[in-house]
């Protein structure tokens, strides 16, 4: 079953078109990667999936419906670049936000869920800390806990490993894969980190900023063997000719 369908979708900002006529599907239970060079439209496409950016044309279906508008209870969890935690609130308060907004649970039940979600991502006991006291990797983990707090079946992660050292990045990849497999999540992962791509992604698409299209689709191993020049340069970290 496809949890996400993109049908002939075009996206962009103002007069700039980033992706044109893109069609693909994300299947239940897979870790799906949206790859490409900087400026290829990866994050903008993810924002379209979660209802934060309109499409220019075409249709997006998420869980069988058009993306929910801001102000409705979300049917999926989202981790934005750099975590996007509220710096003036404790870690626990950040994670509790969606429960306070969308449920009628009593305070002690919310506190228990927050503790459980933070423990799930390896941050037990950090409820009273401020985001500024956490490392970069810990802030990403806290953002994932916040994304999971309503127990969605679908999780969007925007550049989760960006800016992290190789060991922390690998640990975060392992956490994402473990959560996906044990909780039965479908994960859409925006990234250009080769380590993450080869370690945890089941299937992916590669966006091309020059042709404004999906350049290739398949498993990471299939794309690494591709002879398409732009795909080859991306996966083997070689510069393109001027």
Could you characterize what this model shows?
The protein has 242 residues and is α/β, with parallel strands linked by helices. It folds into two domains: 1-76 and 154-242, 3-Layer(aba) Sandwich (Rossmann fold); 82-151, no CATH class. It has eight helices and nine strands. A hairpin with a 4-residue loop joins strand 8 (203-208) and strand 9 (213-218). The longest helix is centred in the C-terminal third of the chain and has 18 residues, at 166-183. The chain is globular, with a radius of gyration of 18 Å. The mean pLDDT is 90.
By CATH, the topology of the largest domain is: Rossmann fold
Tell me the span between the first and last alpha carbons: 43 Å
Per DSSP, the total helix count is: 8
Question: How much strand?
Answer: 25-35%
Which whole number gives the mean pLDDT? 90
Shape: globular
Considering DSSP H and I runs of 4 or more, what fraction of the residues is helical?
Answer: 25-40%
CATH architecture of the largest domain: 3-Layer(aba) Sandwich
Instruction: Give the C-level CATH assignment of the largest domain.
Output: Alpha Beta
Main β-sheet description: 6 strands, mixed
Order of secondary-structure elements? EEEHEEHHHEHEHEEHH
CATH superfamily of the largest domain: P-loop containing nucleotide triphosphate hydrolases
Number of strands: 9
Q: State Rg.
A: 18 Å
Give the low-confidence spans: none
Strand order of the largest sheet: 5-6-7-3-8-9
Q: Provide the number of structural domains.
A: 2
């Amino acid at each position: 079953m496809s949890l996400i369908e993109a049908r002939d979708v075009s996206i962009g900002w103002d007069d700039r078109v980033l992706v044109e006529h893109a069609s693909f599907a994300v299947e239940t239970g897979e870790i799906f990667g949206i790859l490409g060079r900087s400026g290829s439209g990866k994050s903008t496409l993810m924002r379209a999936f979660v209802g934060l950016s309109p499409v220019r044309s075409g249709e997006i279906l998420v869980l069988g419906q058009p993306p929910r508008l801001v102000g409705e209870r979300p049917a999926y969890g989202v981790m934005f670049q750099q975590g996007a935690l509220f710096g003036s609130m404790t870690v626990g308060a950040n994670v509790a936000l969606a429960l306070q907004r969308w449920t009628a649970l009593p305070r002690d039940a919310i506190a228990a869920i927050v503790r459980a979600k933070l423990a799930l991502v390896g941050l037990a006991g950090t409820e009273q800390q401020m985001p500024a006291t956490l490392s970069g990797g810990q802030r990403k983990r806290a953002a994932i806990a916040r994304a999971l707090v309503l127990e969605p079946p679908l999780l969007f992660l925007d550049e989760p490993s960006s800016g992290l050292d190789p060991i922390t990045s690998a640990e975060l990849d392992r956490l994402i894969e473990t959560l996906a497999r044990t909780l039965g999540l479908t994960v859409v992962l925006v990234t250009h980190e080769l380590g993450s791509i080869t370690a945890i992604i089941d299937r992916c698409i590669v966006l091309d900023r020059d042709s404004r299209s999906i350049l290739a689709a398949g498993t990471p191993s299939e794309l690494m063997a591709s002879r398409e020049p732009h795909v080859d340069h991306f996966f083997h970290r070689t510069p393109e000719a001027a």
